[in-house]
Amino acid sequence: MIFEGGSGAGKTSALVKKYVELVNSGVSPDKILVLVQNSAKRKNFIDATKRSIKCGAYSKFNIYTFFGLCYNSVLDFWPLVEAHIKDPNAQIEPNMCGLEVSQHIFKKCVEKAHFKGYNSKINLLHQLLRRYSLIVQNALSDKEVQERAKMLKESFTQEAFEAINMYKSKTLSLRAFDYLRQVGVFSHIYKIVENAYEYVFLDDGDEIAPACFEYLKHIKPSVKEFFVAYDKRGSSRLGYLSAQVVDFPSFLGEVPCALGTESHAAQEIFENVRKNKPVSLSRVGFSSFIRRDEMVDEVILKINSLLKKGAKPSEIAVVTPCTDGYLKYF
């Protein structure tokens, strides 16, 4: 089943309703996979589900971001991964590290790859890290990488290929996997492990990376039913790094269920971008300040004004680019 609609149309609520219907009908949560786009949406999905489920006891919810699914799969199937690592070293537990560890390992690999004509090793390192990120999230094969390199007329293709392969080998040896490396390992796991999910839910399908879609394509034959919510016009991430347009009606062979209209603000913003004819947003105001204390004073006045009009503190959000001493005034 496909739910189609814009921002605020109720797509996620429709998914939660279908999920709860399945669980209340007797389907074990173990057999259901839910993929959302960030940890906040994961928490909201779980909370909404718990409020509606009628059964007294239930097993673990398999509700993840795609990267969360990769992380948990590497841990769950670690003995299988370990068995495929051709390394004489003693078996050790995986280290699900951060990017700072990966950057240190990559730096050593770059030094050994002997790049020519690059004076700035730091700049080169950043280029290669971004290159590797794009390769992983777009699920590119070595052949596809070579084709793109040829099209761009790159001068360091072979050295980059050598450094990245050296990095992959080294992270396996050290059992050090950041989130990108986890995706790479997961892409091997799901191809040799039988799919355990009978139902798959996907929220914000217009925001998934190609690596996620490759996974969905692989498990599709063994899935009884998909439940997908997406905006056919694409999300704000479309065209940025790795987000892609997926034709879900063609992929699933179904006609989408169109939901209600999106919020007025979302319509205004979309029309501004699509038509490139900016118009004033009715519920958005803009102010410019030279000093930060002036900005804080203005925000405090706005908040006081809202409170006097009856707004609840829980209904007010303050988003700030940094946390500093000025925030104590709030």
Structure description:
The protein has 330 residues and is an alpha/beta fold. The protein folds into 3 domains: 2-74 and 193-266, P-loop containing nucleotide triphosphate hydrolases (Rossmann fold); 93-179; 292-329, no CATH class. It is 50% helix and 7% strand. It has 13 helices and 6 strands. The protein has a 6-stranded parallel sheet with strand order 3-2-4-5-1-6. It is globular and about 65 Å long. The two termini are 46 Å apart.
CATH H-tier superfamily of the largest domain: P-loop containing nucleotide triphosphate hydrolases
Order of helices and strands: EHEHEHHHHHHHEHEHEHH
Task: Name the helicity range.
Answer: 40-55%
CATH class of the largest domain: Alpha Beta
Named CATH architecture of the largest domain? 3-Layer(aba) Sandwich
| Beta-strand content estimate | 5-15%
What is the structure about, briefly put?
With 330 residues, the chain is an alpha/beta fold.
Helices and strands in order:
Layout: E1 2-4, H1 11-24, E2 32-36, H2 39-52, E3 63-65, H3 66-76, H4 78-83, H5 99-113, H6 121-137, H7 142-152, H8 157-174, H9 179-192, E4 199-202, H10 210-219, E5 225-230, H11 248-252, E6 257-258, H12 264-275, H13 292-308
Parallel strand pairs: 1-5, 1-6, 2-3, 2-4, 4-5
Helix pairs in contact: 1-2, 3-9, 5-6, 5-8, 6-9, 9-10
